[in-house]
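Letters spell out the chain; backbone shape is given numerically. Both lines appear below:
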Amino acid sequence: MSFTLTNKNVIFVAGLGGIGLDTSKELLKRDLKNLVILDRIENPAAIAELKAINPKVTVTFYPYDVTVPIAETTKLLKTIFAQLKTVDVLINGAGILDDHQIERTIAVNYTGLVNTTTAILDFWDKRKGGPGGIICNIGSVTGFNAIYQVPVYSGTKAAVVNFTSSLAKLAPITGVTAYTVNPGITRTTLVHKFNSWLDVEPQVAEKLLAHPTQPSLACAENFVKAIELNQNGAIWKL
C-alpha cells in the first residue's frame, strides 16, 4: 500500500550517518511535518544543513546511543511523543562494521534495534489503544549473502532481517507494519577501513571495494522510494 510522507512525523535513528544523512536530505524533499533525528554524536553543521533544505519541515535532534537500557529509550520516546503527539514512521539505522568489537557490533546492530522497536511498541501497539505505526529497519545484503570475513557483522544483519520479518507477521496483532531496506556495497566511511574477525583477511576493505559499489545518494533515493511503497514484510535490496 503506497504511503505519502507529506505532513508525517518521522523518527530516524542514526539519521546523520553516511547513508543516513543523504536519506534525511531525501526525506526532507517530501514535505514531512517533523523529522526527529536520534544520533550518538551531535553534528550542528549537518543539522543546520538539513534545516535549510526545506524550512517547512521541523528538524529536531536528540542525542541517543542505541546501547542504553530500554527504560532510557522509552523515556526519550515519551518526550518525543509528548512533543509531537503522534509518530508515523520509525527508521532504525544505527550500525557499525568492526568484527574486532564483537559485543558492541551485536549491541548496536541488533540489540539496540530490537530495544528501540520494543520501546516504541509501548506507544503504537493497538492492544494498548495505540494507533499502530511503520518500522523501517536498515539491514544489509550481507543479511542473506554474508561477507564471510566479517561473520559477526553479517550475522547481526541476518538477525535484523529475520526479526523484521517476524514483526511484519505480527502486524495483525500489534497494528505495526515493518520491512527492511538492505543496501549493497555503498561508498561510505563505514566500508573504507574495517577489521575482519580474528584478522582472517587484513585487506577485507580493499577487497570489498573491488566489487561494484554505489554512492550513498543513489542508495538514499531508493531508500525513500521503498518507504513510499510501504510493503509490509518486504525485504528491499538497494
